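Dear support,

Our group has been running a series of protein-ligand predictions, and this particular one with NAP is the one our PI (initials K.S.) wants archived with full inputs and outputs. We had some confusion internally about which version of the output was final, so please treat the block below as the authoritative record. The input we submitted was:
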Amino acid sequence: MQRVAIVGSGPSGVYAAQSLLDQELVPGVAIDVLDRLPCPYGLVRYGVAPDHEKIKSLQNNLRRVLEDPRVRFLGNVPVGTDGVGIEELRSLYPAVVYCVGAATDRRLGIPGEDLPGSYSATDFVSWYSAHPDAAAGRFALGARSAVVIGVGNVAVDVTRILARGTEELRGTDIPQGPLDALAAGSVTEIHMVGRRGPSQAKFTTKELRELGSLPGADATVREAELALDPRYADPDGLPAVARRNVAALRDWAGTPPRGRPRRIELRFFLRPVAVLGAEEGAVRAVRFERTAPDGQGGVAGTGRFEDIEAQLVLRSVGYRGSPLPGLPFDASTGTVPHDQGRVLREGAPSPGEYVAGWIKRGPTGVIGTNRPCAKETVTSLLADADALAARPVASKDPLDALRAMGQEPVQWPGWLGIEAAEAELGRSLSRTTVKIPDWSGLLSAADGHR
Ligand code: NAP
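Confirmed final output from the archive:
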């Protein structure tokens, strides 16, 4: 068993490759890392906010794995839909590890959710991250007031990007279109709203503190709303992150506004019940019901309502996995059923099929969480090595087989061509590297290097 396909070149896929390389048990292993995009790194490239350069620099670690001579990057190869079928892939490789992440957003299921001006935060993130599938120019940045629903780290990211001055973003790799749109935008108030209390917020303290220290924005929170949470006055016994969050919010509440051009208001105990439209159909407000702790970690409605005015709504209530045609899928969790990374078909492990990352465990945790997750999967794969070696697979090089199926993979030199073109684009705009946001630009930059 020497050849393994990994589908997805984000952190979980690359950590799976690294884990395979680290095992000396597999002499001569050859790993193909497939991705539907011509670019590697998954959410590190297309999810981590452009102003988080330190986290983005993780790309350098992922790069070292993808540049290992035993690894081949095959970008621009869609698997499952309009591309290579699951069974076709299984006929080419003794083992396939699916690391396809959680590509869509969770829905709120409330009236008005899809009104013009209301978007999923994941779409907004894709847009400012230059994802080639992101729709250009559709965000209502002419808004004065924005509501961000949810209090996780993605909510913090989109709030921060709206609240940063464009001079702060110019030095990042944000594509020029979103930079110009944000510069021309007029959002001055951002309300980030949680349905539960401060001790239950999902953001991490570093991110929260960063949001509270932006040079162009005042960050406020209402002491009275914090105090609705019984753990606010009594944080002992809370998990460490929650305790630190509560302490940071106490600082926010005690800091008077400094008259900065933008204002971030963090709200708690408000659950969204409807996105309200103006006569012309666009968003004008979000209606929330005031909630109260139910004593068991949840909240109950109080029958009191509050409308927060907004012309832009970003729904940031978590990612969700999508089914890959041909692969089992549990719609209730948005994940592939598995046992220690072995894909389960009708309850039994399916020979040669594995999962790692968000499609295995759901969209939680930080990037590093994918390392042990991938290692567990690879440990299962290696334990199955004898059985995998006996699986009948095509003898020809999978790259030739993929080409024969009409695929035109972008290999590592093609990706280096994209990197060079992005550096050149940055120079032409007197900026640092600037991401190319469209398919044709990416593919033409990769051309000649395939
Ligand atoms: P998340 O951490 O799961 O947060 C989702 C938020 O949406 C929670 O506040 C949740 O509230 C709320 N929510 C869910 N359903 C709701 C509903 N129907 N109505 C109102 N609110 C609702 O998800 P995420 O922010 O998308 O982040 C995904 C993962 O990526 C996380 O593990 C995150 O830490 C990670 N990430 C990390 C960074 C970073 O390290 N800088 C940046 C971005 C993302 P409840 O708690 O009440 O359910």
